[in-house]
Amino acid sequence: MASALTSEIPGADPAWHRRHDHPYFKESHYKLQRFVREYVDREIAPNVEEWERNAEVPEAAFKRHASLGFLAASAFPIPKEYVKGVTLPAGLSVDEWDEFHDAIIIDEMARCACLGTIWGINGGATVGGPPPRPLWVATAEGKISCSSSAWTATSLSLFGSDVAGLTTIAKKTPDGKHYVLSGEKKWVTQGRWATHGLVAARTGPAGAKGISVFIVPLDNEKISKRKIENSGVSSSGSTYMEFDEILVPAENLLGKENQGFEIIMSTFAHERLWVGITALRLGRVAYEDSYRYALKRETFGKPLFENQVIRQKFSRMANLLEPTQAYVEELVYRSVRLPSLDFSPLAAMLKVQAAHNLEKISRETQQVFGGLGYSRQGQGQRVEQISRDVRVLVVSGGSEEILLDMIAKQQRKLAHL
Ligand SMILES: Cc1cc2nc3c(=O)[nH]c(=O)nc-3n(C[C@H](O)[C@H](O)[C@H](O)COP(=O)(O)OP(=O)(O)OC[C@H]3O[C@@H](n4cnc5c(N)ncnc54)[C@H](O)[C@@H]3O)c2cc1C
């Protein structure tokens, strides 16, 4: 049986790494975990500081990431019929790939401790639509394949909290061959280098039943792009875009006209699971770094860890991490077994809780590091980076206030009360 690569610091890694009788994790999961951990430690983590400073992930790194199968594997659930013949990470076959392989990639990628790079190298790489539209999947060469076309990876361009109230407009031309699209979008992740965007626009009446989704080529002089400076996520390519009456071929409509709301909503459940797993792992990274520091930093003649008040901080943080881990594993299992309406409030709960936990852990681990937790260099550097990235996990993928309300409403509806 393969074993996991795991940390010796208690709480720095999930318990399944050391538990070979775990019902969810099989031989291929351990194999994948080792593969991704070695890759992140060797090729990603040592570079994130430079990539974040340069505000981009180099193309060579992106291509390498794609060549190992990470982009193809980012579709969820993996569309087995479209990725036949594609090499998946660790050389696993499409037929053995399951929802826990997906979760392991998300978890291990987040160990690079830099949300900007996680988004910059893998965010929004796969787009798709309901039948009869094919799924457009990133191949090993870093291209998106769809019928005969070959495209480089794409990004998303959607909306704020109020999806149904979005203001980007698309009108069909009289000959029916194109849509004319106008509007704007703030924070298009990867927008600075993506060749195509998944754009939601109003094509019908106000509300959820008047929205369509388009695959839009972004190399167009009528699209203006401006870099956005955020607190963190510098290497994610965050962009402000304006669409000034651009022509989009009618065949680039994803699914059916005015039925885009469902497509948008279908992406959210996995995105929220993704946020949950990522926030949990970023919390573990901050926990591990500060734990190591507390063991060796001496004040008043003894290591920080020898103080009861410091040890309590670690226990409190572990109390946030471990129940969330159990919930993550439960939800990953359910993600392909529950109807999406039942699953979506559960994923939203995870997203809200894990992001909230990370806010607390970020604060406490910075506190353990003292001044070093506020410095971009040195031992507290990863904790400092996380402190700049954490807020966007609370806001994006469904902001806290919106999700908490949605959870209560949807659960009442499901209970027919
Ligand atoms: C760095 C970054 C990258 C991003 N990348 C992408 C991307 O690639 N693709 C993409 O589509 N989006 C992206 N986003 C956008 C993100 O999804 C939105 O910021 C998020 O959905 C919140 O929308 P908003 O910023 O318009 O806030 P608003 O909708 O203006 O809301 C502001 C605040 O008010 C709260 N609020 C809103 N309405 C209500 C209400 N009725 N009751 C109570 N509270 C309310 C919200 O929770 C929020 O806290 C990104 C954002 C950032 C910061």
UniProtKB/TrEMBL annotation:
Keywords: FAD, Flavoprotein, Oxidoreductase. Residues 27-123 form the Acyl-CoA dehydrogenase/oxidase N-terminal domain. Residues 160-245 form the Acyl-CoA oxidase/dehydrogenase middle domain. It holds the Pfam family Acyl-CoA_dh_1. One of its GO terms (biological process) is fatty acid beta-oxidation using acyl-CoA dehydrogenase. InterPro entries: Acyl-CoA_dehydrogenase, Acyl-CoA_Oxase/DH_mid-dom, Acyl-CoA_Oxase/DH_mid-dom_sf, AcylCo_DH-like_C, AcylCo_DH/oxidase_C, AcylCoA_DH/ox_N, AcylCoA_DH/ox_N_sf, AcylCoA_DH/oxidase_NM_dom_sf. Belongs to the acyl-CoA dehydrogenase family. This is Acyl-CoA dehydrogenase. It comes from Penicillium cataractarum. The lineage of its organism: Eukaryota, Fungi, Dikarya, Ascomycota, Pezizomycotina.
